[in-house]
Amino acid sequence: MRKALCLLLALGLGLFALAGCAGGTSDLADAMFGYVTDSADYKENQEAYDHYKDVEERFTLNYDEMIYDDFTQGIDKDRWVIGDSVWDQWGTDQNGVRPQNVFLLNDPASEAHLLLRANGEFYSGEALSSQIDGVTTGAAISTIEALGPGRYEVRMKPMPRLGALTSMWLFSWFEQNDGSVQQNEIDIEIGLSPNFDVASFTTWTTPDNNNNENVDAGFMVNDGNWHTYTFDWVTDAEVPYVDYYIDGKLVYTSTSNVPTTNATLTLGVWVPSWAGGGEADSQNISNGSRMFDSDYAEISWFRYIPFSMGNWEQRPVTNRPSDATFEPTALTEMPTVNKAANGDFERADTEYQRGDGVTTQWVYPWMSYNTTTEDTAGIVTDLDNAENHVAAVNGAQLYGQWLRGAGEGYTFRLTGRYKATDGASAQFSYSRFIGYQTTSASAGMVQLPIGNSAEWTEFDFTFTVTNRDANSLTKSIRYYLDNGTDTGTVYFDDITLTYFGLNAA
Known about the structure:
2 domains, 28 strands, Jelly Rolls, single chain
């Protein structure tokens, strides 16, 4: 058993220490739970890391029923169902999870194997059913089997935009004999709070009783790096509890409202209106907080190791609706995500036809700024091509979008094309904000000249978000298509803004 597990881990779990695994002579805990690190944080918090590593000393682990899945062989229909359902329909203004938002990835350049797509309010892609156009939809897979106490962990990059909620959660729902409802839930959630500095940990036992804690992760959790999120569900203690970890470090323990009944495990991302800060603020940028087109949660692997312990109840559990026949699209390279919604400016109308033919309101991603002047900015018909739409920035006006959750060191590539008339000069600029809301305090603007060609000219450059100073830490930016001379008109088209990573330029 241990030799086989060492081989499995050597193939799939690159972040764990595997030294000495050959021949099966080493302690399996070194291979499965021994994070290799010489970081200052490890040295300062060794007890918290050791708590993760000594799990075999504290509990009896049932390796025979361990679940490990890196999704390199697809989605095992004997283990998982692909969600096709809507929950919490009251007051959340979200369209549930759709099978079409689940993708498999086989890209040698990426550690991701499972992609879960979230579509925001600026989504303009294909309709995902005859009733739902795809706006504010997410994706999820759930275990068929209801699981009990043990160690649960996922290595992932959460969906990086505010307004979507990336989660690993246990869930079951029972009606008691007295008519009351028992809700069992253990959650790790990214994006619950309008703050990418935190991860949210929640335990539930009824719909009205939960314990939620936002814990400082020590980094911005949408930084584009791989991190492993773990919880240990312990039922046989005098007070049941859940230990939560990030990258092998114990960061929080919940002893309130901890379930003791089995539940199915879901990996998912969904798009409720209250995620990431909820309704629009005073600038009315959006009908909600979901100010993006599409983006992905990336998953490398999931693992569950049962604990052999008592004081928990096994009950029949019914999964939410799913599509047993659906086969996810298999991709051979990681999709390029354009952070600039409607970057080609072809969505020039304020209404559009949903998948079911119903006309609905389009929430507009590009906004004009500096409206105290008589100058204007907006989408116009290209004079050289009546079928093409472009952005026109007249005079001192700015035309921009919000990107919440872009901190110091976040490096982006900007591409597009422009032309400048009547003495205008194309410029790209961004304002730094020290929070995630449009009402956050500004920490100054950075201006990046592009050029002054009178003919359509392509541009392509990278920039790295900075802080103004040590007391003004950038957490979001508002980026603008700009006119550096404040006279004439600059036209822009085919704007793409892609994330490179931390200090990747």
